[in-house]
Every structure is written in structure tokens, then in C-alpha cells.
From TrEMBL:
The keyword Hydrolase applies. Keywords: Hydrolase, Magnesium, Metal-binding. This is 3'(2'),5-bisphosphonucleoside 3'(2')-phosphohydrolase. It catalyses: adenosine 3',5'-bisphosphate + H2O = AMP + phosphate.
Length: 239
């Protein structure tokens, strides 16, 4: 099984585990979110230990293992991105599974189980995006930079949950860009960035610099994903 095939299989399987847990009705609310994080995390780290025992792993829900810093290949996973949305039975949550190689988001898969779709670097295709300019932002914490850029470019801001859900919406062509600032970690963006790059989108930090993964401090607070023809104007408007 290739790395891309493994990433996709892991993301899809973890997503189905999360659907089954929610449908059981045994827990709900915040307890459901916590249980979902734990179930998906345990599955992913155990499966990776079996399938890729020599690689490093960084999971949102796991203890930080400094040994990963010496490894070229590190799996970076978010077992449940959009815990609140998952608990509220909204569709805008996702499972992220990525492989960073020498600090680059090289392989990734993003599953959106409530939509019945999953995306992978091996088969990423960019959809058309007609209509007025739309920029996706956090539905609870829209960044000021995005508000400023939207005003400058005459764009509409649209709130959505998970970082993976927002990035895949740009891949599908439902919006032209996704802008975030004010707090994210490597697991929030690594898999979505890998898929977005494979689909031909621009990805960077707000200042246009590259996103670097498997750092000692996994804090990676800002992100721009957009269609390449928009990137110069959008980055200028964000400054």
C-alpha cells in the first residue's frame, strides 16, 4: 500500500468510526466530542505504528514525542478536526491524515464523512469556481485580516467549521479562498495543505512564506489557501 493509499484508508476508516460512535447515542454534547477525539486518535496511532513503524507521528490528541524531530518522515494527524461541528451533527468536520517529508506536507487525505467524500493527494482535482468572490473563514473567529482583504477585493466572507472542510470547499470550487489567522497547529493544516497543493491551489502563510511541518513547536497560526490566479491580489490585501 502506498503512502497516499494508506492516508486515504486511515482517514476514511477513522471517519466511519466517528459516525458509528455518534449514531450509537451513548454519548452526546461535549462528551461526544471528547469520545470521538479519543477513539479516532487511538485507531490512527495504532494503525500507523503497525503500518509504518519506522515513521514519526504527531497527533493533536497525543503526547509530544521529541524523537519525531530527528525523522525525515512524520505522520501528522488530526483525528477529529471540528469537534464542535461533529458534536452538533453539522457536516463541516473532517479527519486529517498527512505525511510530512523533510518538513513539507507531501502526502495527505481529508475525509468528510457526513458528506460521504474523501480527498487524497493522489486524486486531487480542482473544481471550477464561477460567480462572485468568496473567502471562507472560521465561523466562530473570523480574522480581521480576512475582513480587510474582503473589503479591498469586494469579496464575501463565508463562515465554516473545520479547516479541512474549508480547504476542501475551495478544492471543490465552492469558494475562491480560505484565510485563517489567530491560532492553528500543524495538524490543523498539514493534510488539507497537501491535498490543496496537489489540486493546484496556492498555499502559504499570510505573509506568503511557506508552511513548514514537524517543528519542535507545532504552533502554525495562519494559513492562506486560494486559487493561484487570486494569490497575488489576496496576499497584497492581507498585508
Amino acid at each position: 500500500m502506498t503512502d497516499a493509499e494508506l492516508a486515504l484508508k486511515l482517514a476514511e476508516t477513522a471517519g466511519q468510526l466517528l459516525i458509528t460512535l455518534r449514531q450509537s447515542g451513548l454519548v452526546d454534547g461535549k462528551a461526544l466530542g471528547a469520545a470521538g477525539d479519543a477513539v479516532a486518535h487511538q485507531f490512527l496511532v495504532q494503525a500507523l505504528a503497525h503500518q509504518r513503524p519506522d515513521d514519526g507521528v504527531l497527533s493533536e490528541e497525543g503526547a509530544r514525542d521529541p524523537a519525531r524531530l530527528a525523522k525525515s518522515r512524520v505522520w501528522i494527524v488530526d483525528p477529529l478536526d471540528g469537534t464542535r461541528e461533529y458534536s452538533e451533527a453539522r457536516p463541516d468536520w473532517a479527519v486529517h491524515v498527512a505525511l510530512a517529508i523533510d518538513g513539507v506536507a507531501a502526502i495527505g487525505a481529508v475525509a468528510q464523512p457526513d458528506l460521504g467524500v474523501a480527498y487524497c493527494t493522489d486524486a486531487a482535482e480542482l473544481g471550477p469556481c464561477p460567480g462572485a468572490l468568496k473567502i471562507l473563514v472560521s465561523r466562530t473567529r473570523p480574522p480581521q485580516e480576512a475582513e480587510r482583504a474582503a473589503k479591498a477585493l469586494g469579496a464575501e466572507l463565508v463562515g465554516m467549521g473545520s479547516a479541512g472542510a474549508k480547504t476542501m470547499a475551495v478544492v471543490r470550487g465552492e469558494a475562491h479562498a480560505y484565510v485563517h489567522s489567530g491560532g492553528q497547529y500543524e495538524w490543523d493544516s498539514c493534510a488539507p495543505v497537501a491535498v490543496a497543493q496537489a489540486a493546484g491551489l496556492h498555499v502559504s502563510r499570510l505573509d506568503g512564506s511557506p508552511l513548514i511541518y514537524n517543528c519542535e513547536d507545532p504552533y502554525l497560526p495562519d494559513l492562506v489557501v486560494c486559487r493561484k490566479e487570486l494569490s497575488a491580489d489576496l496576499l497584497a490585501a492581507l498585508r
